[in-house]
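Field reference: sequence -> structure
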Amino acid sequence: MKLIGFNAGNVTRSLLEILQEHKIGSYRLLTDFRNGHSILESNNNRIYVIFKKEPFYTFNRQFKQFIADNPQLDGLGESINIEVLERCKTFRCEDIVIIHPNEIYVVPPNLISKFCMKYGLVRGQNKLNSYFKQDGFKTKENISEVTFSFPQKIMQTFSERYRGLAN
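Structure field:
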């Protein structure tokens, strides 16, 4: 499956069309957040969508001991801010959909939380991330974020997750 678009808004609209087309659900955009995050809602489900340009390439180097203990999970990783997981809980999102240019992944937010806490894959960032405040004045705020990092291999691809539904 290939999503169409060059930015988060276009790709999210393309995902909405695919969900409808394959009868996975009649979703609509509930809300957008900064940096390509949004929540889609149907009558019986909500999913949190993250548009990413690239995976966590240095996962294996950052978490050498974890990979040494779990070599079957080596490879690319992902990271999600703890704020996102809290938002998933608040909005009762059943899945997180991570969209990369070449693949779409699906994972329940509670799986990420439990997995990362069990294996100690939680880290605070050394550098501050700068974001525009949503105050209409284009002022920036600097935030040090706590992230949960995990191997891509614990997620399902969109095709794997919806195999039985997307004929």
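Note: The domain at 8-161 is CATH 3.40.1350 (Trna Endonuclease; Chain: A, domain 1).
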